[in-house]
Amino acid sequence: MNKFKEPVGLFLCGGGALGSWQSGVLSRFVEMGLVFDAVAGFSIGALNGAAYCYNKMAELKDIWKNLKRDRILSFSPGYHNIPLDLYQQHKPDFFSRIGALLQNNLARCTLFSNGPVYNVLNGWLTKAGSNFSRNINFYVISHAVEKKLPYIIKFDGETGGQNLSFVDALVASCSIPLIFPPVEVTERGRTYHLVDGGVIGIATINLNIFEGCRTIIMISNSRDSDLVFPSAGPFGYFESKARRMLALHTQKIHESRVLMRSEPQVHLIKPPEDLGLKLLEFDGVKCLRAFSLGEEEAVRWFNSV
Fold it and tell me: Which residues pair with 265 in a beta bridge?
């Protein structure tokens, strides 16, 4: 596809069930013949990136259509004694510090098992073999709690040869604090706990992994209005904070383009309307609608550039 200067990088942001919209955008891009030379993603973006590397985009629509909450969320509470610090958006006064302490301890608790996520990935991706269907560099991004930094694993056309297995890396990238337990990795004799960095907010991911690309396409699942997303319902506080963090990450990642020596043209694609979904609302009907909206937006955007 000669419409964009090559090489072309693809960055896929996180967003839980909102990633059904991102799946729709990417699936339609593939149908239109777009080819990417490097892909990076975190959380659901990492899963969509894996589907691209394995050339499984055609399967995504049915996966979202048939998705049910209990296929992903299996109640299994736990506690993980890790030095987890979440980003604070308020001034560091006494009450804010107390609130932050309570929040960080609460985030060390997890409500659901990651077993169902492992089952889905093992049944879907590992049977495809250790080599990608595409010759591509794929960067899976999570967050190392002890380092307080993004943890990026590069898979160069195959899934082996790393400190962490391919499926472990994907699960780690999706390990939202409070929701799923962290994934452990041992590096130079030290053990680190990996979680989804999209809702941490301490160290911002940037685009320098695409250094040398002439074009970068970012597909977000967040909208600007998510920076002030209201809190409502039983999980309202979590939904509101996670949405704000995802939107903030998207903003900061996009801004990092100015630091790249190769000066690529960076395109940021966001949902043009509210998707009517919550982050953990794995409802097949709603996800299918979001997927279709993503397909429509891909066509509209592609024709406009």
Answer: 215
